[in-house]
Design a protein that fits this description.
Length: 175
């Protein structure tokens, strides 16, 4: 197993732990919800982006502003897609980055790419809708921290919001 695969497995284990805690805390209150935690959505719909396939970004954005940096890069460079999820260097961290149609990763904030990336590549319309609603200030992510998340938790994630890039997580689990 490669370091990237181990890193992605670490992210999945982290998300599974958070989901288990959320399920024990909220399943009684929301028994009919499709998901109890964002981790379930990421594990089911997230895509792997390989840091060994990272391409350089001409100008990195400010530290600790990955959601904003990635949104700006996707807007400025029409060939890039905004991706949000978790990345890992030493520990899984909520993060955003960009990817192109071939699944190449563009790290818009960190000087060196992390060791693993698992995220959802969103269509621009979704990103713009969240931005227009001024939900960018959310602490728990940008799109994944927006009011859309409650709808996805309750009713299930709408796969039509995805851009079909990156590797499905099932590719990793089938190896």
């Amino acid at each position: 197993m490669t370091g990237i695969e181990q890193g992605v497995q670490g992210i999945v284990q982290w998300l599974d732990m958070l989901t288990t805690i959320a399920r024990s805390n909220s399943a009684e209150r929301y028994p009919h919800w499709a998901h109890q935690h964002i981790g379930e959505i990421l594990v089911k719909h997230g895509r792997i982006f390989r840091p060994d396939r990272a391409l350089p970004v001409e100008i990195l954005g400010p530290a600790k502003r990955c959601f904003h940096n990635s949104m700006e890069a996707a807007f400025a460079f029409g060939h890039l897609t905004y991706v949000e999820g978790f990345a890992s260097t030493f520990f899984p961290t909520e993060h955003a980055w960009c990817a192109d149609a071939n699944g190449y990763l563009y790290e818009t904030t960190w000087e060196k790419p992390g060791t693993a990336y698992l995220g959802i590549p969103f269509k621009w319309d979704v990103v713009a809708q969240v931005n227009d609603a001024n939900e960018f200030a959310s602490e728990g992510g940008f799109v994944l921290g927006s009011s859309m998340l409650l709808n996805w938790l309750e009713n299930g994630f709408d796969e039509s919001l995805l851009v079909d890039i990156g590797e499905p997580l099932s590719n990793l689990t089938e190896k």
